[in-house]
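Troubleshooting: if your tokenizer reports a length mismatch, compare your output against this known-good record of 267 residues.
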Amino acid sequence: MLDEFHTADRSVRTTLSILLSGRLVTPVENEQLTVRPVPLLTLNPGEAKTLEGRLGLSAPLIRRALLVNLDAVPLPDLATAGERAVEAARNHGPLVLGAPQDDLQGFHDPIVALVRNVFAREAHERVDIEIVVSLTVGMTAFIPDPVPAIAQVAHGVGLIAETLGWARPGWIEAVSEFRRGPRSQPPRTSALARRVPSAPPEANTEQVSAVCPAPASISLVVPPSPARRHTPVPDLDLSDELRARLIWFAVDTGQSVEEPRLVHGRK
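Known-good structure output:
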């Protein structure tokens, strides 16, 4: 649990990137660290035009996360009702986590289609489908039947997508149609998730604010990459040092680095 992440100084946030990178095994000081927990990060978004600027996270980190804006969720008076949740959790006891009952290998394409019918088109680049696939596999530990397990996860991610204004209008109907799909064989994309056309931006419904007024919607815009200056080396992801070596090699050998050459019968 990384609480108040935005108040940590830069060195602390850099260290915590080990937990946020998404890698299960990462090298640390000539050793390998196995990261087992799933981090839960909380912060108050800052003032910026882009989502990256408001959260202080890079685009890849955002894509690997499941985001929720709790300012858009109406909450009860926690001063009077908050203890009920704590008491209920205390009386329930620890959850027993079993092993997944299905790897859902035959359901990958339907899951992708369903997720795209839950999230608005402009939010597709903000969601890592494989994270949702992993969640659905894990859900089969609680709901062994694949179709209801997938629908349960899709409903959950749809609820949090609504808090950011990322949900496609009619997404609940798409999830319900998926849940009613055939159970006897892996469902096909066309038979499960009905394509619901996106409504124009002005048709968005007003969100109910929480105790405090909800802030403006978080922008989905990815900050533009800086323009790459033209060089005689092809547009590859090369370091400046390697790019200089290629130019020197081309001049020394009289070869052009812009035209493809056949080497041992291959380009």
